[in-house]
Design goal:
The two termini are 22 Å apart. By secondary structure, this protein is α+β, with helices and mostly antiparallel strands. It has one domain. Strands 1-2-3-4 form a 4-stranded antiparallel sheet. Strand 3 and strand 4 form a beta hairpin. The longest helix is centred in the middle third of the chain and has 12 residues.
Length: 108
């Protein structure tokens, strides 16, 4: 299972190589040209968005396309960041429809 730390004003996400590979190959939602798939991923976010992201602890110098970074962060963080957290909107809220709110957002 991925590791998530929800701080007072930040969120950190660590995803293993196995998890990113499975995410990129997910049935019906595959990312065939995924940059993250098969690589470990670390993402730091604050209320302005991603502040740092690294593949394989920074050993691979590849840019992660914004749409892919947003999608993988959303998939691994939905339901794990409270709706009243300062980072919630930039990593989850802007990508969901109002009807989905009750299923995805725990309260503190």
């Amino acid at each position: 299972m991925c590791r998530v730390i929800v701080g007072q004003s930040s969120v950190s996400l660590w995803v293993s190589r196995r998890e990113t590979r499975a995410w990129a190959r997910k049935e019906g939602e595959a990312w065939p040209c995924s940059v993250t798939g098969g690589n470990s991923l670390h993402v730091e976010c604050d209320s302005n968005g991603s502040t740092e992201n690294r593949l394989n602890s920074g050993k691979k110098k590849r840019d992660i396309p914004t749409h892919e970074l947003n999608a993988i962060a959303f998939d691994f963080l939905k339901g794990r960041v409270p709706i009243d957290h300062p980072c919630w909107y930039v990593i989850i809220g802007q990508f969901i429809q109002p009807a989905m709110l009750s299923r995805l957002t725990p309260r503190r």
